[in-house]
């Protein structure tokens, strides 16, 4: 087991969430002082995962995995489940927020911890930009307009959601629950409509890949599972945190696995796979239009807007708290530890949001999705290895997650190099 320093008191935050949030969670603030109950934490995790990924990358996975697309999401989900178990176990063992940064610090790898925090913060800035660009792309697809409209709408989304984050944990979590419930309802309807007409032949693509394509597909879009680790940054915000983080990790990841597999099987029943591959970022909108015409197009666009919006919200919320944690230990400028009157780490929110705005304006971030997947596979592989080495949590899960994450990284790198 690791030997850790004395626990830092949980950040002062509002006493409770709005009543409807407390009712959903079934938990109030506890002696840990946290404001996030089960519903709020689940929504933050699901919102961080089911964001731009399923809307902008489904065609990419189909192109790589063909009829095995559902298996790509299953493989990635199993690696994510193992990692979530290890991350929860390591967080509880250290009883501190901070994710891999904290784990490496507790092991005495200060330089590696500092580097991991910087890499993750850059990765989160990129993912926020990807979500924002996808948000704008779906809305521009409906409303039309000039070529700069996707970027403009994405920037507007970042500004609005950064403002909500500046209001503190209660408002961020309350908005997240509403968004997540709404988008899951729409995606569930799309999934059911496609699955009732299920025909395995419609999953086929031209020049179908073998089963190896499922592994390449899983690695290529592993970014779709990025987001559950944000919960380790929110640990100090949680009510009954040691118990809650163990419960919410598998629940959050399991929700994403179910949704991704259902959509991967259902959407090709509504739209030809060739169109899903070619239409890229707005492929699901075409599925909605094929199902219900204009109302279907509008519903899926609404789901895409809610989904990417919740991912921006959750990622800003949690990554700003990572920056605060690192700054409190003088590994980032002290200004990142400052909080406003609502106890939000506002410098982190504004800095990450501003960086994402710049990247959104630049656009063309699709090629960075694969790079981000590699980054997160490496990070998650390291988390699993640390858990295995320290004997924290289930060693089988840790070993599976370590091998799965690092092997996927190697295979993806070989695939990008056109070696395999």
TrEMBL record:
Among Pfam families, the record links this protein to: AA_permease_2 (PF13520)
Q: Does the keyword Oxidoreductase apply?
A: no
Instruction: Please list every transmembrane segment annotated in the UniProt record, as residue ranges.
Output: 41-64, 70-92, 113-135, 147-166, 178-198, 210-228, 248-271, 297-323, 344-362, 368-387, 396-416
How does this protein sit in the membrane?
A: Multi-pass membrane protein
Gene3D superfamilies reported in the protein's UniProt record? Amino acid/polyamine transporter I
Listed InterPro entries: AA/rel_permease1, APC_superfamily
Give the record's keywords alphabetically.
Cell membrane, Membrane, Transmembrane, Transmembrane helix
What's the superkingdom here? Bacteria
Output the Gene Ontology terms for molecular function.
Answer: transmembrane transporter activity
- Protein name per its UniProtKB record: Amino acid permease
- This chain's source organism reads Altericroceibacterium endophyticum
């Amino acid at each position: 087991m690791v030997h850790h320093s004395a626990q830092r008191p949980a950040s002062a935050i509002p006493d409770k969430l709005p009543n409807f949030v407390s009712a959903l969670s079934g938990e109030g603030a506890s002696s840990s002082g946290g404001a996030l109950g089960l519903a709020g934490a689940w929504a933050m995790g699901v919102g961080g995962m089911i964001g731009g990924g399923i809307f902008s990358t489904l065609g990419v996975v189909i192109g790589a995995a063909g009829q095995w697309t559902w298996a790509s999401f299953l493989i990635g989900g199993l690696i994510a489940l193992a990692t979530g178990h290890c991350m929860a176990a390591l967080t509880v063992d250290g009883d501190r927020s901070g994710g891999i940064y904290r784990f490496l610090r507790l092991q005495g790898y200060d330089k590696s911890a500092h580097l991991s925090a910087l890499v993750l913060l850059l990765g989160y800035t990129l993912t926020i930009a990807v979500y924002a660009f996808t948000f704008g792309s779906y809305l521009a697809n409906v409303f039309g307009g000039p070529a700069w409209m996707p970027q403009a709408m994405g920037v507007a989304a970042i500004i609005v959601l950064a403002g909500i984050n500046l209001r503190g944990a209660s408002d961020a979590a309350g908005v997240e629950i509403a968004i997540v419930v709404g988008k899951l309802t729409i995606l569930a309807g799309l999934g059911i409509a496609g699955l009732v007409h299920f025909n395995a032949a419609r999953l086929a693509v031209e020049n179908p890949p073998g089963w190896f394509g499922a592994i390449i597909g899983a690695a290529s879009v592993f970014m779709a599972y990025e987001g559950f680790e944000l919960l380790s940054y929110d640990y100090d915000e949680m009510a009954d945190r040691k118990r809650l983080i163990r419960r919410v990790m598998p629940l959050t990841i399991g929700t994403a696995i179910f949704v991704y597999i259902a959509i991967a099987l259902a959407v090709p029943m509504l739209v030809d796979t060739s169109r899903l591959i070619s239409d890229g970022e707005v492929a699901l909108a075409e599925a909605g239009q094929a199902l219900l015409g204009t109302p279907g197009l509008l519903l899926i666009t609404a789901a895409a807007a809610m989904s990417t919006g919740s991912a921006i919200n959750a990622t800003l919320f949690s990554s700003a708290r990572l920056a605060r944690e690192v700054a409190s230990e003088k590994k980032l400028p002290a200004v990142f530890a400052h909080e406003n009157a609502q106890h939000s780490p506002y410098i982190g929110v504004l800095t990450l949001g501003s960086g994402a705005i710049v990247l959104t304006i630049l656009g063309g971030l699709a090629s960075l999705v694969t790079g981000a997947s590699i980054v997160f596979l490496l990070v998650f592989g390291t988390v699993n290895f640390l858990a295995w080495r320290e004997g924290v949590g289930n060693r089988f899960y840790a070993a599976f997650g370590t091998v799965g994450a690092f092997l996927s990284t190697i295979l993806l790198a070989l695939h990008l190099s056109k070696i395999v």
